[in-house]
Amino acid sequence: MTAPLMDVDLGHHLFSRLYEIGFDGRGMTRPSYGREENFAHALFMGVAGQYGLEVRRDWASNLYLTLPGRDRTLPVVMTGSHLDTVPCGGNFDGAAGAVAGLLVLCAWVKAGFRPERDTTLIVTRAEESVWFPLSYLGSRTAFGLLEPSALETPRSDDGLSLRHHMQDCGASPDLCGKASVLDAAKIDCFVELHIEQGPVLLEADVPVGIVTGICGSTRYRSAVIHGQYAHSGATPRCFRSDAVMAGASMMTALHEAWKQAEADGEEMTLTFGVCRTDEAQANFAAVPGKLDLVIDIRSRDEALLERVNGLVIQQARRVEQDYHVRVELGPRTCSTPAVMNADLQADAKIIATSLNIPFVSMSSGAGHDAAIFALQNVPTGMLFVRNSNGSHNPDESMEMDDFMEGVRLLECLLRRRAVSVS
């Protein structure tokens, strides 16, 4: 079969409707297990119904859209991503992969192509862990990896539990640990398309990246440094318990450790995404007595993550002594690095070359649902599409021509796996 024609107008329609659903006046806000995420899932279900795709949802309301294969006993080919966003995010993070998968299945239906094995688009719930401090929530529920106790986790904006929001969205949280879930042995492969969230493709001037691996993370989302409020003019340095200076010293030391790791040829990132004093009590005439801090460390090297985590603890203890403060790091959350399947990478390179699509191989510093599939021993691949201005912000800027190049590559890669019966 020659490659079917991808419907770019359907792509424009889906992105336009997602924009209308999520626009908050500045960017996109489709909260995990929220009203807007529900509307986005309904949009995909509606289009799938028009094309005669099978539609089902699991106990956690992950969505599965399937074009049945000739032999439904064969392991299934899967693609997909998510439709939730961070607050005031962009319209392409996650959504690009979900739209791409739907375009492929709709094109196959329109061309009258029936694969040898089932081919399924999964649209996961709640990938963005800014809403719940649980990495890869949707894909973890799909594989039965969520502990029932996690259902009581509050959502960041309203404090209501994951259980509450699941029920409100039509899910069945009481089935956690009891309902049937994905079986990795029955999945032939999983390939996720996603916008790149950094500048690599832009700087290389190529539209597509073939991902080699996905970083894991160590995070402290609610660290607090407790000092003592005091008069800024009447308190000499030796009598101060300055939470801000303790935090600055700790952050600077960790940043120096990052620079040294890079000098040693190691790959990681370190980010302090929140650093704030108490609006109600801090002022220009007071020594700050409290600092809230978040710490985000990422790497494909699990040993490096552990080593840097040890440095975080060591630096916390040091500044307690040096600045007479108390450091509460709070709970540590982690995700495991994942390696993408070598055969899928090789196939993607061969196909991209045959289609005259320029590409580079690259790692992913951000986390994705593909990591969970890979860690369940499902052969997993990932494709990036060039995108300006990063992600998780309203200025995400993916060109439709670049996107359709990624869709063409995804379609050929999925079709190669879907027609194989070996």
UniProtKB/TrEMBL annotation:
Organism: Gluconobacter cadivus
Keyword flag Transcription: no
Family (UniProt): Belongs to the peptidase M20 family.
Entry's EC annotation: 3.5.-.-
Gene3D superfamilies: 3.30.70.360, Zn peptidases (3.40.630.10)
Keywords: Hydrolase
Molecular function as annotated in GO: hydrolase activity
Name by which UniProt lists this protein: Hydantoinase/carbamoylase family amidase
Uppermost EC category: hydrolase
NCBIfam families: hydantase, PRK12891.1
InterPro entries for the chain: Amidase_Cbmase, Bact_exopeptidase_dim_dom, Peptidase_M20
Keyword Hydrolase: yes
Listed Pfam families: Peptidase_M20
